[in-house]
Amino acid sequence: MESLKGNHTRVTEFLLAAISPTWQSQAILFVIFLLVYAATLVGNTLIMVTVGSDPRLRTPMYFLLGNLSFLDLCYSTVTAPKMLVDFLAEKRSISFEACMAQLFFLHFVGAAEMFLLTVMAYDRYVAICKPLHYPSIMNRQLCSWLVAASWTGGFIHSTVQTILTMRLPFCGPNQVDNFFCDVPPVIKLACTDIYVIELLMVSNSGLISTSCFIILVTSYATILVKIRSPEGRRKALNVCASHLTVVTLFFGPCIFIYARPFSTFSVDKLVSVLYNIITPMLNPLIYTLRNKDVKSAMGKLRSKDVISDGKMAM
After folding, report:
1. Burial call 231-247: b when 16+ CB within 10 Å, e when fewer
2. Half-sphere exposure of residue 304, counting CA atoms within 13 Å on the CB side?
3. Three-state secondary structure call for residue 4
4. Residue 227 — left, alpha, or beta (φ > 0 → left; ψ -120 to 50 → alpha)?
């Protein structure tokens, strides 16, 4: 604590909660989440390298997929390294400044990913429902603008959330009821009435996550309705299935956490682990296992590496 005028104090660090109460289980979880984080790094990096190296994948769909993998990698990196260190630490503390930085980048990347997933749904809508006009509509320039708009929207959203949080007075308890700094558990520690701030933040985060989810589901439903033939509908469903899986895994927990008043439930930590640690790892698996082009490109990339290694050995 830091002393301020008027016999008040300001919190200089926060204490993060443990996922498990015992040292043995903490050690086991450290190994599990280390493997998960490593798989997240490798999987998303592999998709970015594959999309960037194969000329056949230089299309709007794969350009957006590469950006999604980059966001997933960043999103997981905001919380996972600190969580892994805390598994082995006796005191799980984070400075006030680092906490605010973590909160900022978490919402920055998270909101940008929400907007990007919405853009990807629009891309699939145009590709399936307007195939003849697809090249002219989803050109490279528009895709770049849409990706830039996703990042800009995430930045604006996160800036609002962070400024509202930083302006609150923190002068008493400093135990964050989660393994990372997020808006709901942090603002509960403020030494003031947070009712108005809570409404503003629920309106912000909750509205974004819920609106994007509704737009996504509506777009996929429109695709299936507009396709009349059973065979065409089957192919469309196969194309959109991976997107629907990602949407469900990502938006479901976000809506549960942010689209309600910031009351605490025992399941909140488990839900936080799902959308912060597990989902960024699953996205590469979902897209590669259901996409023949990506799997083929990865196979060719691996063959090139093998041939290159063989020449070096000679």
Report:
1. eebeebeebbebbeebb
2. 9
3. strand
4. beta
**Sign of the torsion formed by the C-alpha atoms of 175, 99, 282 and 213:** positive
Query: What's the sign of the alpha-carbon dihedral 144, 292, 112, 80?
Result: negative
Query: What averages of pLDDT result for each successive group of 10 residues across the chain (314 residues)?
Result: 54 84 83 93 89 82 90 93 88 91 95 92 86 87 94 95 90 86 89 84 85 89 79 72 78 86 76 85 75 69 53 46
pTM score, whole prediction: 0.87
| Per-residue tokens: 9 | 């104090």
Radius of gyration of the CA atoms of the chain, in A: 22
Which residue type is seen at 20? S
Residue with tokens 């839900």: 271
In the chain, the amino acid numbered 24 is Q
Residue linked to tokens 């964050």: 176
Cβ atoms of residues 95 and 142 within 8 Å: no
Q: Are 251 and 216 in contact (CB under 8 A)?
A: yes
